Amino acid sequence: MSMKKRNRLAWDTSVFESVGGTEVRLAAVTKECPPKIHPSLQPHGLFGCPMAIDEETAGPRPVDWSPWTHPPECLTAGYDRKNGTKYCIYTNSAHGHRGVSLITTPDTAANIVELLDDFNPDFMHEQDPYKLASNRTYTVPIRRDTGAGHPESAGKQRSYEVVDIPYKGKGVVATRRIKRGDVVMVDFASLVLHLAFPGSVRRLDGYELLLKATGQLAEPERVLGLARRRDHPPNVVEDVLRTNSFQFELDDKPHMALYADVASSQSSLAARVIAYRDIEPGEELSLSYVEVGKTHEERQRALQRWGFTCTCAICTAPASEIAASDARRTRIRALKADIVEALNGGDANNKNKNKNLDRAIEMAHEVVALVRREELRSLYAEQYDALGRLYWATGDRARGVAYARLSLKTLEDIGYIEPGEEQLPKLLATYGEAGSESQR
């Protein structure tokens, strides 16, 4: 999933003024925001043109800092109180399952406020048995570990449970068969922190703001009770963030996000876990903490920031299997670089261009075979798309379309996109002009 990029927020409400019983349109704004629209004048539930506010400009009334449920509290980086970057707490204690608190700049908070209202009910569907009704509320009962809140009439077994796993602590285990592409669980961000914040403010002041941001959530204990690297850290929230959060971009700025249950997302402020393969009852569910495709040594080195050693089947395989896997992954990386070199190394001569395309296609097929051998399922769609583009460039539209369809089908299977033939023209439109068969 990828974060939606919003350079400008949209306000698509027309403003009218009544003159002598006749409505006169004063402004019909699309794609751009009118300047300084006070929060109290914005359409209810649609935060299209929010103002950047801090503790000095928010005003005394709740409507002045809506949609946040608490007035912002801020710290200024460095010693320049007038011109230094300001970081503030922005909390909506009703968002998601237990509320969300952001510590970020006023501009970023204003630019992403639409995410609080950017909700697609289909995103929330956990395949059998708990589907959310099509509305705009966030009362989703699927994230209570005790099962509390589930409709008694559902009459079906929940897909997972949280249990103690020897030498690991808490883990998630399937309680029934989960099909590939099923949505297993859904979670919302609890804390979102600008990546520059911890190193930009006085440590003790930063600690105080972190505790305040957590305390304003509907269920602070859900965050405070997460795993930590130290038994007695200087600040519990900071240790929880360093142990459990993931980096992502918000408003094109680097942030870290903490999901109390899922622990990763780059799609609005919500995340869902989707099964990449069929999962049998009793199997432990896991997600990748590091970029998919790294070698064993790279994975272990990257995992040090979370303070644990991975004991999954891939990381604890016999040395000979790890070596073979590393060799395949290293080969994948080298082939991808060679493909780029082949495509960039040609000249205007059609013969050389076609030769380079042929070589690139050959290497791309090898990449697909290696990716499948390594079961790097999250990379399948990307590699099919690459092959589609390569064949398209040679003028072989039939194979280009075939691999484009295969890429889309893969994305459908893992629940990344909704099924529909309308996706194909959109993808092919990005392929550009195809070469002609006569060039071959």
Which series of helices and strands comes N to C?
EEHEEEHEEEHHHEEEEHHHHHH
Number of helices: 11
Q: Characterize the quaternary organization of these chains.
A: single chain
Overall spatial form: globular
What does the main sheet amount to?
A: 7 strands, mixed
CATH fold call of the largest domain: Beta-clip-like
Domain SET: 158-290
Protein name: SET domain-containing protein
InterPro entries: SET_dom, SET_dom_sf, SET_domain_protein, TPR-like_helical_dom_sf
Provide key terms for this protein.
single chain, 440 residues, alpha+beta, Beta-clip-like, Serine Threonine Protein Phosphatase 5, Tetratricopeptide repeat, seven-stranded mixed β-sheet, 11 helices, 30% helix, 16% strand, globular, disordered N terminus, disordered C terminus
Would you kindly provide a written description of the structure presented here, covering whatever features stand out?
This is SET domain-containing protein. Residues 158-290 form the SET domain. InterPro entries: SET_dom, SET_dom_sf, SET_domain_protein, TPR-like_helical_dom_sf. This protein is of the alpha+beta class and 440 residues long. It has two domains: 50-287, Beta Complex (Beta-clip-like); 319-439, Serine Threonine Protein Phosphatase 5, Tetratricopeptide repeat (Alpha Horseshoe). Helices cover 30% and strands 16% of the residues. It contains eleven helices and twelve strands. It has helices at 62-65, 106-112, 203-215, 220-224, 236-244, 296-302, 319-344, 350-373, 380-394, 397-413, 423-428; strands at residues 14-19, 22-28, 74-76, 86-92, 100-104, 160-165, 169-174, 183-194, 246-250, 253-259, 270-274, 284-285. A hairpin with a 2-residue loop joins strand 1 and strand 2 (22-28). Residues 1-31, 43-47, 118-155, 263-267 and 435-440 have low confidence and may be disordered.
